Amino acid sequence: MIPVGPMVAVTNTIGDAPGIRIKSIKKNNKEGQEAISGSQSGLLMGYQSIVKVRPWALRDRAKELGLPLPKYAWKAPYLVLTIYRSREAPIRTLAPATIELLSETETKGWQWIMTKGRFNSNQYANAVHVEGRTARRHLNRFIKLGMLNKIGSGPSTEYQVI
Q1: CB neighbours (10 Å) of residue 114?
Q2: Which residues of the chain have pLDDT under 50?
Q3: Which candidate, 92, 98, 121, 153, has a CA 20 to 30 Å from the CA of 114?
Q4: Which CATH number fits domain 94-161: 1.10.10.10, 3.30.70.270, 3.30.428.10, 3.40.50.150?
Q5: What does the pLDDT look like over 56-98, one tens digit per residue?
Q6: How far is residue 66 CA from its own chain's centroid?
Q7: Rounded distance, CA 105 to CA 89, Å?
Q8: Where on the phi/psi map is residue 6: left (φ > 0), alpha (ψ -120 to 50), or beta?
């Protein structure tokens, strides 16, 4: 685990090298699932209850707390899990040049986007309190900056964080 300012990056090697170990992993007798104890998860993420060691559990807990969703990335030879510790963390982890390109409204929009899995332009417009045309302009800017993927076309177009 690597604390990096407003986030925690967990790396695990793939292959022959030994991976990380979280000593506080315990067996949960009820469900037979491995779990991280509340004190360990509290140190990592500000969570105060047991977090199951399943990808969707981290996502669901982040949604419940209104935090940005965790990100998974392959950076050979590591699989990197990034867990954000505050709503503002995704902004602070962007490159300074990218931050300078974003307006105040786009910055607030990016914070909202990071708490969602998939969304459409109407949801973005309602959340950020902008007109539909402005919302689409923001989303296209995020795409050009390499921050979002566009999925589909027409009225069913959705967006997802890269």
Answers
A1: 21
A2: 12-52
A3: 153
A4: 1.10.10.10
A5: 677 888 888 888 888 877 888 878 888 888 888 888 888 899 9
A6: 11
A7: 16
A8: alpha
